[in-house]
Design a protein that fits this description.
It contains 22 helices and ten strands. The protein folds into two domains: 339 residues, ABC transporter type 1, transmembrane domain (ABC transporter transmembrane region fold, Up-down Bundle); 244 residues, 3-Layer(aba) Sandwich (Rossmann fold), CATH 3.40.50.300. With 618 residues, it is α/β, with parallel strands linked by helices. The longest helix has 53 residues. A hairpin with a 2-residue loop joins β9 and β10. It starts with 32 loop residues before the first helix and ends with a helix. Helices cover 62% and strands 9% of the residues.
Length: 618
């Protein structure tokens, strides 16, 4: 994965062309952890700035809470000294202490509320941004990145990120306590304060060492957790394949291996905490022992009042909790930094398919749907394979014409379909729709003009009506029904318990393969594209029912340019012209009957496909 430099101050912003503006080059591996950690902290700072008013109010609440809390020992000191030594009434001082405690408690609650509120707002905003950016990213990015990995970054990593943001006002309050208590102790008795605070430099050194060792360990835990999530996601998504092959033990062993890796990485992280946290908690307690020992002698010698000794002890005790929290803050900070790096890697991946500055609109008058491939070269991994999938491919399809693309597996048929709506960028040449280069057309307009029915049908966990109306959720039922009729789906839909309102479950697996494909065809028809691509769209339909879809598609294909990628002769015969591809090049064109009679290679490919088809629907 490649990352480009961006200004760190605009870490999570996006430009109108969809590019992310995230700082320096990032890497998720343990190599270069220090640089990656800086990028993670930069992301934390950038997202926190977006909610700075809420964070500022949280810090103000923390300041008032701290003021009330540090006032309590002073009030105790004054009450003891004036009540015991001077005989003043203790009730006013007691009420003052209660008042300071209530004041502190109120702002403690407000501080915690604001801390969680701000963190949740930042989390929601960043989750929306990640989701939107992932949708903008090109197909090749999704080809190379597992779904479970992306889900881990947008969920688990984001949770670590949110947890630390929650701690920012709390950490600020703790810092204020340490600063204010230190100042008060130095004012009360400088020497005793120095003895009480002598352990702080050692706590600081341990904190730095703790952070340096913990960061790579936390990074590894999160990477291993992402790999575990990938195994779970693939197993659940492919549960039918797993069960079909009786491969439950295979997946269980994969899960056990990944869970073991998470366990080992977590133990390393826990061992680091076990080494440092006890010492970081013990050192502040040494100051308390020093104050009790040396301060007691000062009281006996008359150099320190009882009230001052009591308040000093309380202040030392007040330091222990913030200093103990230092370890938790460091640990959460390192988790957040590692999570920030992994989130930033996604946000920093600029979409490879972007709109030009001023997109050209497709013409909307005259005969529409003319498609041209002009000397197109393309390869998914040309550097690795040494050869592209398409080589100098030139093809013209006139408006309203239907063309069947036929060829052996790997000949480039589906690639042609995926290049037309710019799912991938051509390496050379150009693709034109109605005289306009597709690279000059806005992606939204282009993909509205070109609809594809993929061989692998994907339906959403919603009603049949919602799936058919996916391109236009506000469309009326009559239009949905008409699209279903054209796709040959209306009859079986009406037989379902709730008709068009039937919920079809995850990916529509409650329906047969042919039913799913007919709904997908209806979805493409409703989008009313000027170019319709059927990528082996009848492969899952029973041959006995295929004629129903062919008859229904006849009307649709007469009114728009259609590219049919097919293997069955009856489906190929729907097209006005057949284009025969082999190794990324056009080697023959003509009608199905002419090619069948004149081209031996064409007959060979169809014979091979027929042998596969005879084994049953694919």
């Amino acid at each position: 994965m490649k990352f480009g430099p961006r200004e760190a101050i605009a870490l999570t912003a996006t430009t109108p062309d969809g590019k992310s503006e995230l700082g320096d080059r990032l890497r998720s591996s343990a190599d270069g952890v220090e640089g990656s950690s800086r990028a993670g902290w930069a992301l934390i700072a950038a997202t926190a700035r977006e909610e700075w008013p809420g964070i500022a109010f949280g810090m103000l609440a923390g300041l008032l809470y701290t003021a009330g809390r540090v006032a309590v020992p002073l009030l105790i000191q004054l009450g003891l000294d004036r009540g015991v030594n001077d005989g003043e009434p203790l009730l006013p001082w007691s009420l003052a202490i209660v008042g300071a405690g209530l004041f502190s408690a109120c702002f403690l609650g407000l501080r915690r509320y604001l801390a969680f509120r701000n963190a949740r707002i930042i989390e929601a905003r960043l989750r929306d941004r990640i989701f939107a950016h992932v949708q903008r990213l090109h197909f090749s990015f999704h080809d190379a990145n597992a779904t479970g990995e992306l889900m881990s970054r947008g969920n688990t990593d984001l949770q670590h990120f949110q947890n630390f943001v929650t701690l920012v006002p709390l950490a600020f309050g703790n810092v204020l306590i340490v600063v204010m208590v230190t100042i008060i102790m130095l004012v009360l008795h400088p020497l005793l304060a120095v003895l009480a605070l002598a352990s702080l430099p050692f706590v600081n050194v341990l904190g730095r060492m703790f952070a340096q060792e913990l960061n790579p360990a936390i990074m590894r835990v999160q990477q291993e957790a992402a790999e575990l999530a990938t195994v779970v996601e693939e197993t659940v998504s492919g549960v039918r394949v797993v069960k079909g092959f009786g491969a439950e033990p295979v997946q269980a062993s994969k899960l056990a291996a990944e869970a073991g890796d998470v366990h080992d990485a977590a133990l390393v992280s826990s061992a680091i905490r076990a080494r440092y946290l006890p010492a970081m908690e013990l050192l502040p307690s040494i100051g308390l022992i020093t104050v009790l020992g040396y301060g007691g002698h000062l009281v006996l010698d008359g150099e320190l009042t009882i009230g001052e000794l009591v308040s000093f002890n309380i202040y030392v005790l007040m330091l222990i909790q913030p200093l103990r929290m230092l370890g938790m803050i460091v640990a959460n900070g390192q988790r957040a930094s590692a999570a920030g790096v992994r989130i930033a890697e996604v946000l920093d991946t600029a979409p490879a398919i972007i709109d030009v500055g001023s997109p050209t609109a497709l013409p909307d008058t005259g005969e529409l749907g003319r498609v041209e491939f002009r000397d197109v070269d393309f390869g998914y991994h040309p550097a690795a394979t040494g050869a592209g999938v398409l080589r100098a491919l030139s093809l013209t399809i006139e408006p309203g014409e239907s063309v069947a693309l036929v060829g052996a597996t790997g000949s480039g048929k589906s690639t042609v379909a995926r290049l037309l709506p710019r799912f991938y960028e051509v390496d050379g040449g150009a693709i034109m729709i109605d005289g306009v280069d597709v690279r000059e057309v806005g992606r939204r307009e282009l993909r509205k003009a070109v609809s594809i029915v993929f061989e692998e049908t994907f339906l959403f966990s919603s009603s049949i009506r919602d799936n058919i109306a996916f391109a236009d959720p506000e469309v009326d039922l009559a239009t949905v029904v008409r699209a279903a009729e054209l796709a040959g789906a209306d009859a079986f839909i009406r037989e379902l318990p709730d008709g068009y309102d039937t919920e079809i479950g995850e990916r529509g697996f409650s329906l047969s393969g042919g039913q799913r494909q007919r709904i997908a065809i209806a979805r493409a028809i409703l989008a009313d594209p000027r170019v319709l691509v059927l990528d082996d769209a009848t492969s899952a339909v029973d041959p006995a029912k295929e004629h129903e879809i062919r008859d229904a598609l006849g009307e649709v294909m007469e009114r728009r340019t259609t590219i049919v990628i097919a293997h069955r002769p009856a489906t190929i015969a729907l097209a006005d012209r057949v284009v025969f591809l082999d190794e990324g090049q056009i080697i023959a064109e003509g009608t199905h009957d002419v090619l069948l009679a004149t081209n031996a290679r064409y007959r060979e490919v169809l014979a091979a496909d027929r042998d596969v088809a005879d084994e049953g629907p694919v």
